[in-house]
Amino acid sequence: MTAHAWFLVAVLMAAVALLITLINSRLKLHPFIALLVVSVLTGLVAGEKLTDIPTSIISGAGGVLGNVGITLALGAMLGRLLSDAGATDRLAELIVSRGTARSFPWMMTLAAFVIGIPMFFEVGLIILLPFIFGVAERIKRTRPDSKPYVLVVTPAIAALATLHGMVPPHPGPLTSVSGLHADLGKTIIVGFVCAIPTVILSGPVFARWLSRRMTVEPDMALVAQFTHPASVEDSAAPGAGVAVSGFHRGPGATERTSPIAWAVACILLPIVLMLAQSIGQVFLAAKSPALQVLELLGNPVVAMMCGVLLALLTLARFKPGEQVRSAVGESLKPVVGILLIIGAGGAFNKILVDSHIGDALAQAAQHWQLNVLILGWVLSLILSTATGSATVGIVSATGMVAQMPAAGGDPWQVALLVIAIGAGSIGLNYVNHAGFWLVKESFGMTLGQATRLHTTVQTLVSVIALGMVLLLSLLV
User: Fold this and answer.
1) CA distances from 324 to 84, 221, 222, 304 (A)
2) Percent of the chain predicted with pLDDT > 90
3) How far apart, in whole angstroms, are the C-alpha atoms of residue 256 and residue 329?
């Protein structure tokens, strides 16, 4: 490994340390400003051309905002429409009324597991936000001494991250399947065999342990957008009817509230469209008209837009049009700061990629004498950490191990290699990942809290999944 490569590795470590210092020191810089400052300094020290640094920042921020930002904005609109129509609160009440303190993390795990099959991590979390807020707030009202957010957020992160990195039809694992010429069916089988115990241990089991050691309290403006707690509290008054987000129903009242079936349809529509796209990519010809239609409708932005339009056409009829338009506009206010931070995180990510810092880390790892499963995991972990993208980590690590003799061996071992590479891409999800900032800002966490929860959960997923891969490698 060259001296310049070691220098770039040191630059990465210094950049992360500086970012943490700027956010947590007496300066208390807003993460958006801190990320931009560190991005510029990292590009300068790493030797990127001066004229290329602004381009990297703009393209990095624009790429993330185009992929995640629009989807987040549409998700906020959909959540507000569901909340104002009373749907989110009624669904949360349905879950809480049929669950217990021990079952809530398991129920959230199941919901996130199903949603995570066709969806990227960020998109799945955005869709789950109304339920996480709704269920957590109802648990708080019935059990004031509980710490519900840690209990329900942890399983959601674990399930979404596991499926995003390890199980086709997500693009990262599919790319690895193609690059290693793995059998898709065998990869899906071992992917789910590894994913299920991984999600259980890093999700509800770890959530029970972590909830006794930390508390998370999101910003009340964002909580109110999805839950309208005031209306729920009003409904608890003696003799009162049931208040559902602005639609008060006293005894004998006839005001209409949104049918819960329509609310479920609005939530499931984007999921179904994205799942249909993923299935089509596996079974349909590459240039078939049917696949082109599915790829249009299954794009996360278009799919979420369809969900919002369905909500407008169905749920919004329970309120005047002007009030609906005002609610949609107001739904964006609590997420503006999140959007800016995610964009700045994308800029930092792009600087690291364009400065070839990830290549330097991978070069160091390739000189280690490791089992090919462990090597694939390590390379993917390093590249994902350096570039801020699980997909980049998977794609790059796949290319590096594809030339090794062990990568073309037994079909089951090759399938396990795909899962090992995907598991590596999940770990050490930190400040240059858009998902880290989405979780941190959505739930009002400090940098330290987000590290303890989000980074720890995803790293736990990565390590447990590697253990499952190594265990299965002894049996197949």
Assistant:
1) 9, 18, 18, 18
2) 18
3) 24
